[in-house]
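Dear colleagues,

As part of the handover before I leave the project, I'm documenting each prediction I ran so the next person doesn't have to rerun anything. This entry is a single chain, and its sequence is reproduced below.
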Amino acid sequence: MSIKITGLDNVLADLEGIKREVPKAAKQSMRHHAKLIAEQAARNAPVKGGYLENSLRILDEKETPRRITITVGVDESRLGPGYQLDGFEYHVQMHEGAYNLGPRSQAKADAGNDVGPLYLDRAAWQYEPELRADIQDKVDKAIR
């Protein structure tokens, strides 16, 4: 008795397509969500002179085999001169410290923004489930 298997070339071609499409789709989703995280972090950030809000952006993107890393954070070159507070860089103190909101930050919070410490972390936490679901959806579509 013998078994003849046909169509193996098509299966291999499909697998090669998936191998190309999944990382491409994941990278596209990560870029999109990194931009959303930076925008949300700016809405969460306290405001004094506006430098901190305007400095939040995608800082770096690295790709190695089986890993894509997109860094969202504070572009220190956009913070303006002398941004120190109590011996710490202003953006670090505003992210990690405990403080009362100043008038402009309070007005921003009163307008419906979640202003305050961990402004960057909270933005990332907010979009993480959506990012995971989007990547999973793209993987599912690629393997169908």
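The CA atoms of residues 55 and 78 lie 5 Å apart. The longest helix spans residues 8-44.

All the best with the project,
I.
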